[in-house]
C-alpha cells in the first residue's frame, strides 16, 4: 500500500488542515473588530478633533468635572477661568468635552 488508510479516508486536506475549523475564530475576530475596535477608533478621532478645535472663549469641562472658560490656549495647555479672577492651567488632553456657550452662567 502506497497511501495510508487514514489519509485515504479523509477529505483530502493536507496534514489535517480544515478551513471550517478556523471559520468560528474568523467570525469572532470580525465581530470583535466591528463591535469593539472600530467604534473606539472613531470615538478617538472625534475626541482628537474636538481637542484641536478648542480656542479662547470656549466653555469646557475637564475629566475631573471642573467647568471653565478658556482664557488662553497653547498647543499643550489651556488656561481656564473657573470663577471670577480664578484661573487654572490644565493639559489639553484633560478636557472631556466642550459645552454650549452660556452653560457656566446657568450653573
TrEMBL record:
UniProt-listed Pfam families: YajC (PF02699)
Topology of this chain in the membrane: Single-pass membrane protein
UniProt keyword terms in alphabetical order: Cell membrane, Membrane, Protein transport, Translocation, Transmembrane, Transmembrane helix, Transport
TM spans (from-to): 20-37
Main location: membrane
Superkingdom assignment: Bacteria
InterPro entries: Preprotein_translocase_YajC
SMART domains reported for this sequence: YajC
Subcellular localization: Cell membrane
Keyword Nuclease belongs to the record: no
Family stated for the protein in its record: Belongs to the YajC family.
Stated name of the protein: Sec translocon accessory complex subunit YajC
Organism from which the protein derives: Chromobacterium sphagni
Amino acid at each position: 500500500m502506497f497511501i495510508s488508510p487514514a489519509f485515504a479516508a479523509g477529505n483530502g486536506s493536507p496534514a489535517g488542515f480544515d478551513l471550517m475549523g478556523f471559520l468560528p475564530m474568523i467570525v469572532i475576530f470580525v465581530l470583535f473588530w466591528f463591535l469593539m475596535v472600530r467604534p473606539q477608533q472613531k470615538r478617538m478621532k472625534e475626541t482628537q478633533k474636538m481637542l484641536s478645535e478648542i480656542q479662547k472663549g470656549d466653555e469646557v469641562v475637564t475629566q475631573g468635572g471642573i467647568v471653565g472658560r478658556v482664557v488662553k490656549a497653547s498647543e499643550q495647555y489651556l488656561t481656564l477661568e473657573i470663577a471670577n479672577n480664578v484661573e487654572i492651567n490644565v493639559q489639553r488632553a484633560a478636557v472631556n468635552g466642550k459645552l454650549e456657550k452660556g452653560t457656566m452662567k446657568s450653573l
